[in-house]
Amino acid sequence: MAIHLTKESKVLVQGMTGGEGMKHTRRMLAAGTNVVGGVNPRKAGRTVDFDGQVVPVFGSVADGMRSTGADVTVVFVPPAFARAAVTEAADARIPLAVVITEGIPVHDTVAFTTYAAERGTRVIGPNCPGLITPGQSNAGIIPADITKPGPVGLVSKSGTLTYQLMYELRDIGFSTCVGIGGDPVVGTSHIDCLAAFQDDPDTELVVLIGEIGGDAEERAAAYVREHVTKPVVGYIAGFTAPEGRTMGHAGAIVSGSAGTARAKQEALEAAGVQVGRTPTETAALVLARLTGAQ
């Protein structure tokens, strides 16, 4: 089992014929993803050969869905065109849009996430690495060869920390790993993924990776307390960050005690979540919980 992405998923790539789109489409195909088409209105009707796998290019998401039955789109378009791309995907009522693009203006993100939600399209991102269900499908830029299928679900603001925890726990494996992005506004939250992992019978434990700034982790802690019965292990990046400093992602801004790593740790621990101080310590906590060690 998995959340949001399985071997049955049929994937379109908006911006497939650009440099980043070409590179990562090739990597997705190599990972076994069922990429059924690209989208570029200026190149509709053409095909692209990826090492022997020929992928058609459609003029719109709607055309691609009609021709292939696609139910996922991965967005690799420049920031100025991202809002239009997601709006087009939402108008086509595609169930899942994974927005890799970074540098999208916040007002554009607010507009397209709201618009998509109203039309039943889940947005993951923007400014995210996407998601992977190891051994089944990979939608985005997450390396596919650093872990294997297993019982751990992972939701993370940080792309790099997603990869590190996947590697640290490579001998255990994952059901699905979701990079939700670190921008101030994202389409899918920690809570959304916690709910999905709670309902996934093959996810035994959830790893939640957050970072300083905002209150997403505190809200996730409240949700865990009320709704999650599976064990949750957390890691918060930024324990040594100077207060008030923006660190990395645009969403990581600390103000007062809210948003600090310590405040997030305390909220999560109060909800029964064990929190590691480093990725390696976090992986050790996961191993201990899965093996029943104290």
Distance between the termini: 28 Å
Q: What is the N-to-C succession of helices and strands?
A: EHEEEHEHEHEEEEHEHEHEHEH
Strand order of the largest sheet: 3-4-2-1-5-6-7
Shape: globular
Strand content: 15-25%
| SSE-based structural type | alpha/beta
Calculate Rg over CA atoms.
19 Å
Question: Kindly state the mean pLDDT as a whole number?
Answer: 92
Q: Could you name the ranges where pLDDT drops below 50 across 5 or more consecutive residues?
A: 253-257
Question: What share of the residues lie within helices?
Answer: 25-40%
The major beta sheet can be summarized as: 7 strands, mixed
Number of helices: 9
Tell me how many strands there are.
Answer: 14
Give a short overview:
This protein is an alpha/beta fold. The protein is built from nine helices and 14 strands.
Topology diagram in text:
Blueprint: E1 11-14, H1 19-30, E2 35-39, E3 47-50, E4 53-58, H2 61-68, E5 72-75, H3 79-91, E6 96-99, H4 106-118, E7 122-124, E8 130-133, E9 137-140, E10 149-156, H5 159-168, E11 174-179, H6 190-199, E12 205-211, H7 216-227, E13 232-237, H8 261-270, E14 274-276, H9 279-291
Parallel strand pairs: 1-2, 1-5, 2-4, 5-6, 6-7, 10-11, 10-12, 12-13, 13-14
Antiparallel strand pairs: 3-4, 8-9, 8-11
Helix pairs in contact: 3-4, 5-9, 6-7, 7-8
